[in-house]
Amino acid sequence: MSRFSRDLMLSGLGGLLACGLAVALSLWLVESTILGPPLPHPLITLLLIITLGGFSLAEIPLMVFALRRLAAERSGNPGLIWGLNGLYVFFAAIYGVPVLLITGNVGSGLALCGLAFVRFATSLLFVRETRQ
């Protein structure tokens, strides 16, 4: 395993950890009834899942393309690629946590946050260091 791949994996693991912390905090808020979900209606839950899930899935190929281009064009600055990769993996929480907090639907929120694992896997599979 090259240094680039190892550091890409570590930045993705950092994104997964941050995503897990955001999910844990929001689950604690919802389950402890400190924060009651303001819109627990099934139709609103479905609309949020479709909208936010669609954005999350549509973002995956775009971000993989951007990370690949950065790896090809900015090989002298790998920190930019690693930081963006960690943010890319973490961003699944930005789509899943609102579903948890707004609707209180734990299963749907966790499913959207679970896309962080898909993001992590796609970055490991498709982003490579370019040879010069």
Can you characterise this structure?
- The protein is mainly α.
- The chain has one domain (3-126).
- Helix content is 80%, strand content 0%.
- It has 6 helices and no strands.
- The two termini are 18 Å apart.
Secondary structure layout plus pairing:
Blueprint: H1 3-31, H2 42-73, H3 78-90, H4 92-103, H5 106-113, H6 115-126
Helix pairs in contact: 1-3, 1-4, 1-6, 2-3, 2-4, 2-6, 3-6, 4-5
Summarize the structure.
This protein has helices at 3-31, 42-73, 78-90, 92-103, 106-113, 115-126.
Treating each run of at least 4 consecutive H or I residues as one helix, how many helices?
6
Please identify the structural class as seen in this structure. Answer: mainly alpha
Low-confidence stretches: none
Q: What is the average per-residue confidence, as pLDDT, rounded to a whole number?
A: 93
Head-to-tail CA distance between termini: 18 Å
User: What shape does the CA trace take?
Assistant: elongated
How are helices and strands ordered from N to C? HHHHHH
- Cα-based radius of gyration, to the nearest Å: 16 Å
Helix content: over 70%
- Tell me the number of structural domains: 1
Strand content: under 5%
Biggest beta-sheet profile: none
Count all strands and give the number: 0
